[in-house]
Design a protein that fits this description.
Largest sheet: 8 strands, mixed
Strand order of the largest sheet: 1-6-11-16-21-26-31-32
Number of helices: 0
Structural class: mainly beta
Number of strands: 32
Shape: globular
Radius of gyration: 14 Å
Length: about 200
């Protein structure tokens, strides 16, 4: 995809799904070897360079995003906005800048905004990640709950949050696992209280 994508929904809508390739997947979907070069913007939640929201057991593999990805609310990622339901993001690369404007919770990440009981592995982020609220990470804004895993991934981009829970790899970590991930120490990691020079924001 090389176009420009922008989506808005009414305030009555609980959430939206916006992606450079797919907004929301079906269960057991396979999204592989896709490239997005478009600018992707969502007015609400679940915005991703490749997929906005993964349903159960989705696999996103070998995908690349070059576009700038943003939301007026939260849950935004360079590859997937919300990775959930025992889904897997593997061997993906993000080059695009990612930002979330919500001043409460950003859930902004270079690969996924929120990783819930799912896996991110063998991924690289080069984009700069910015969140007006908390939970901002170079790979994932939030990595949470039993079954969730972040492994063998690398962040190169700068990470900036205006609140708390800002990390070079993960903004907010809760009960999920992190194993053998790396980040560029010369990049800038800053939160609203100073400089967050650590892999995990909490």
């Amino acid at each position: 995809n090389v176009g420009s994508i922008s989506a808005s929904v009414s305030a009555a809508e609980p959430e939206a799904y916006v992606g450079g390739i797919v907004g929301r997947t079906a269960d057991n979907a396979m999204i592989e070897n896709c490239t997005n070069k478009a600018t992707v913007h969502g007015a609400q939640y679940n915005v991703g360079g490749i997929v906005g929201f993964t349903n159960r057991a989705t696999v996103v593999s070998g995908c690349v995003n070059y576009g700038t990805i943003s939301t007026d609310m939260n849950t935004v990622g360079g590859i997937v906005g919300y990775n959930r339901g025992k889904s897997t993001v593997t061997m993906c690369v993000n080059y695009g800048d990612v930002s979330a404007a919500n001043t409460s919770t950003a859930n902004a990440g270079g690969i996924a905004g929120r990783n819930y009981q799912s896996t991110i592995e063998y991924c690289i982020n080069y984009g700069n990640i910015t969140g007006a609220g908390q939970k901002v990470g170079g790979i994932a804004g939030t990595n949470e709950y039993t079954g969730g895993a972040l492994r063998y991934s690398y962040n190169v981009g700068n990470v900036t949050g205006s609140s708390s829970y800002v990390g070079a790899l993960v903004g907010y970590q809760n009960k999920a696992t992190i194993d053998r991930n790396y980040y560029l120490t010369s990049a800038t990691y800053t939160d609203g209280k100073g400089t967050a020079q650590k892999g995990v924001g909490n």
